[in-house]
Amino acid sequence: MMAYALKVAVEAFGPGLAERQDVLGALADVAMEAYAADSAVTRALQSAEGGALDPAAEGCVALYVLEGHERAHVRAKHAIRAAVPDASACRDHLATLRKLLVEEPVDVTALREAVLERMLAAGRYPLAWS
Prior knowledge:
Elements (H helix, E strand, L loop, with lengths): L1 H12 L7 H26 L8 H29 L3 H14 L7 H15 L8
C-alpha cells in the first residue's frame, strides 16, 4: 500500500511533493503502521518460550496488526485522494489500492477472549512490564 500510494503521489507532484504536507503526513502514517506491525510481530516472536507463542501475546499482536492494516489503508486512500483530483483517475487508483488490501477472515472474538482470559488470570494487562 505504501509503495503504491507513494508512486501515485510522486507521479502527481514530482519534486513538489515535498510541499504537500497532507500527502506526506498520510504516507508517513502508512509507514509507521508497517513499522509498528513489524515491531510487534518481532517482539512477540522474541518472547516465545520453547518456540511456542503465548496465546495472549499472539492475540494482542494479531489484533493490533489487523487494526493497523486497516488504519494504513485509510491513510493510503487519503494520500491518493489528495494527490489525484480527477475523479475518474482517483477511482482507478483507489480500485488498485483495494486490490492490494488483503483481508483474511479472522476470529477477532477468539483473539480478544484469549487476551481477556490471561488478563483476568493475571489481574492486569497480560503483556505489562513486570
